[in-house]
From TrEMBL:
Keywords: Hydrolase. GO terms for molecular function: dipeptidyl-peptidase activity. Pfam families: Peptidase_S15, PepX_C. PANTHER family: COCE_NOND FAMILY, PUTATIVE (AFU_ORTHOLOGUE AFUA_7G00600)-RELATED, PEPTIDASE S9 PROLYL OLIGOPEPTIDASE. NCBIfam families: CocE_NonD. The keyword Hydrolase applies. Residues 321-574 form the Xaa-Pro dipeptidyl-peptidase C-terminal domain. The lineage of its organism: Bacteria, Pseudomonadati, Nitrospinota/Tectimicrobiota group, Candidatus Tectimicrobiota, Candidatus Entotheonellia. This is Xaa-Pro dipeptidyl-peptidase C-terminal domain-containing protein. It comes from the Bacteria.
Amino acid sequence: MPASASLQVSTNVAVPMRDGIQLYADVYLPEGEGPFPVILQRTPYNKTLARTPLDPLKSAENGFGVVIQDTRGRYQSEGEFYTFRYEQDDGYDTVEWIAAQPWCTGKVGMYGASYVGATQWLAAKGRPPHLAAIVPRITASNYHEGWTYQGGAFELGFNVSWTLLQLTLANFQNLSNRLDLSKDRQQALLKAVDAMDPAFSHLPLKTLPHLPDGMAEYYYDWLAHPAYDDYWKQWCIEDHHAQISVPAYNIGGWYDIFLGGTIRNYLGMREHGATEEIRRGQKLIIGPWLHGASPGPGITGDHYFGLGSDPTVIDLDGLHFRWFDYWLKGIDNGILDEPPVRIFVMGDNVWRDEDEWPLARAEDVNYYFHSEGKANSLNGNGTLSTQAPANEPPDVFLYNPADPVPTQGGPLCCNAYFLPNGAYDQREIEVREDVLVYSTPPLERDIEVTGPISVTLWAATSATDTDFTAKLVDVSTCGCARNLTDGIIRARCRESTAAPSPVEPGQVYRYTIDLWATSNVFKQGHQIRVEISSSNFPRFDRNTNTGNVIAEDEGFKPAMQTILHNAQYPSHITLPIVPG
């Protein structure tokens, strides 16, 4: 480690791309002659503000140069920004430019969160020879499933808030320079961000008025490609794990909007990475974290997981440096000899190292839905148990898209006021008649649930297309119902998001709802609860129930939903139970 913490700083350094566009970067080098291994952040969120998660001064103290670059069409950089389109080639060109500089040893790493994680994986997909390691945090593996859509449903709250504020309003000066936009356009955007609920409710979705004329054409392209088609396949990471030859330390959060992709990147690279060394060089850590800043140390939503859960307390920066020490400096610090997986177990509120994911010792147990035909709301007679159902009447509810079930926490982004994310009490949601509630009796002992979770739903609808949602909830002894994880399936996507097909009204179909994963100890006296409904708005767009292209629909059609739970159709949630 250098004795001095002084920095050599060069701002707005031009980095040429293969098509002649210049991207601009700030370069931070430790004091001394060098050369140095370099860590790179390629960000759409303004390079002058992107001095986290690794501070350049702290990086210099640890012997690393840092390059922070505005991606194409963002802030100081030239060109047109279009989500994902240029990140593979621009990432490749930037890594190789850095490696060729006299102040670089030829070893380059990348780091950062969210879209900055996407710039890492897309660069890795391009296979630049000098990219030695990455640390992608809270990011996805597929920019259709688990980023823009989930289970076939459009992730409305995220897509609208992210595009309006972080992608468009925040970058207005660059857009204005290229498009000669008026101040009136800026004021209209500002008003849309300050009053976001009307944007969430706007119909039809494809006519959202704030983003056309070159401001964010990609938003309308997302809506024009609801299926997993070639538009999305060109950027997919998980389809190319076998060709990627970069070690990755994956960092995720139990309440992060990209948790599913974080886990799939780890698993895919662990199994299919290009070489044995690369397959071994994959790590995973998941905390009880949000997408974005926490309201305070140890706080996720309105729940407190303890100071020990905070990234600063476990020295997440230090983990980055140990990872880059190994791969960029060749220091054998033992990091690869440590267990590859580290998880925070909620409920017990402890960190635990594991040798694999999912846990080999966890046993998948089905918890079946039961009722006397009236599981509607918290006041209904829905129950949950490991005993399979016999002859039971179904549960029925009316899904009215004009009055959807409101979102209450969960994995959200990117406006904490309109979309507060994390763990929140769900009882306000559970009083609705269009929410089915199935709960175990108070538990006689602690039960740990750690691993992937899914709901198998046997259901019929009066519509030709609709949605079904599911949520796993931990109910404390005082009645507080803390959400753990949730999911959705669009009926037309029940078999495939690449080839959607309508359903026959009244016919019973099997739906699998992926709730991704969690790690939680349901304490003695608590209850395990599952909520079933057909909307979670504005986290997801409202299914109009018409069977039409939802982005083009201006009206709604109510649907009668029937959830079966009997010997022939045993609807249930599958929980990975870890033996005590």
